[in-house]
Amino acid sequence: MSSYVAAIDQGTTSTRCMIFDHSGRVVAVDQKEHRQIFPKAGWVEHDPEEVWTNTREVAAGAVAKADLHVSDIVAVGITNQRETAVVWDRTTGKPVYNAIVWQDTRTQAIVDELGGDVGADRYKTRTGLPLATYFSGPKIRWILDNVEGARARAEAGDLVFGNMDTWVLWNMTGGVDGGVHVTDPTNASRTLLMDLDTLSWDAEIAADMGIPLSMLPEIRSSSEEYGKVRERGALAGVPIAGILGDQQAATFGQACLSPGEAKNTYGTGNFVLLNTGTEKVLSENGLLTTVCYKIGSNDTVYALEGSIAVTGSLVQWIRDNLGMISSAAEIEEHARAVEDNGGCYFVPAFSGLFAPYWRADARGAIVGLTRFVNKGHLARAVLEATAFQTREVIDAMNADSGVPLTSLKVDGGMVVNELLMQFQSDILGVPVIRPVVAETTALGAAYAAGLAVGFWKSEDDIRQNWAKDKEWTPAMDEDRRASEYANWKKAVTKTFDWVD
Question: 99-137, pLDDT tens digit by residue?
């Protein structure tokens, strides 16, 4: 009888369950979107209970689609949108507030206060991160400061915190009836609260933020058995044995397992990760230092990361807010109707700019508009924004690592857009390679879980499973590449200093 591994992929816009066989191929997938809640400008929230309901439904859906019995599933892995913070009551299981999403910028005043005279790099040597609204710690502080009674309940030990991995794991393992309150180092390293060297919570930083240590989950490795799925539902009794934040999971799924190997995930945002091995490299060029993964008792592997807030979500915005297209796939059709962007550049700084700028004061701008520009040019500018932002991050990564990128592995929903992939290769000047399994986030979580239970014996199995689907090579001459990129850099400067 064949055996399989399931992965829960709790993302920014949807939750899905994917089931993989030993070769790393997708056997079944079920997916469900959840609401995006925007109470005020700059605020982004999700309903944690809606997400948990969807998690149960997609798990059942995937198992049913594959026509499997629960005994066919040997392990479950979890991957998740990182930095999105949930605070809930450990006795009732009810969140005290909606999940505050990674894109949310409401915590800027808290971030400024914490930086004080030192500035954004106050905790960087310990956490690898600049002080920014992106990360979980300030979100927890905001909830404790703004939800009536929350701080007193937290200090009494009644409230707990988790990113979405912890929320899903706690509920899957029983919730109020024995739920496991655990995270892994990839998620913990995105809170601004974890020491990168010790992989433990930093009591001094937590005190600075006014966060009781009792709220924080136990940090375990990315690949070990944390508990079993509660005794009801489609995956009842299956061990949950892997946790990786979504971008680290994609890095693992792409088999970027050696120092110097990099991948770029094209999702709601874009995230470039470079494996730096067991060496923690602090960036001097606006990148993040983060945990890449920790497999069982093996040494911790670190990464440099370039985080871009808005890429795929810009296509979603064009569809939902402007009604310019009716489906995401249409954007390529319109972009192919023109030869270039017509001199138009779209900088989607909707929540400020992430790497390499870290400018919370920036806001989105479309520049270079003339009467000549039409719908096709705008569509092309939307796609090119993703490639240009990636080039900026790759340039920073090359500078930090001292090793120029020679090719880029890509994954995520946008890599089906072949015009974008060709332009990405053109603007980088290196080959862009898409794997057979493009949705490597769930695959990485499955690998972490499968390694823990012996379904895969070693990382060599993961390397052997990786297979190339298509490769794009540069077709743009160097002069045009330099000109286009210079125009983009000029466009970015027009977004600065918008918010006082």
Answer: 999 989 899 999 999 999 898 899 999 999 999 998 999
Q: How far apart are CA 485 and CA 186, in angstroms?
A: 33
Rounded to two decimals, the pTM is: 0.85
Amino acid, single-letter form, for residue 401: S
pLDDT in tens, 440-450: 899 999 999 99
Q: 161 — phi, psi (to 5°)?
A: -120, 150
Closest CA to 391 of 486, 257, 268, 480: 486
**pLDDT tens digits for range 253-305:** 988 888 888 899 898 889 899 888 898 888 888 899 999 999 999 999 999 99
Dihedral class, residue 399 (left if φ above 0, else alpha if ψ from -120 to 50, else beta): alpha
Separation CA 36–CA 185 (nearest Å): 27
Cβ contact 27:66 at 8 Å: yes
| CA nearest to 339, candidates 379, 299, 283 | 379
Q: How far apart are CA 301 and CA 280, in angstroms?
A: 8
- Please name the helix (run of DSSP H) or strand (run of DSSP E) that holds residue 9, with its range, or none: strand 4-10
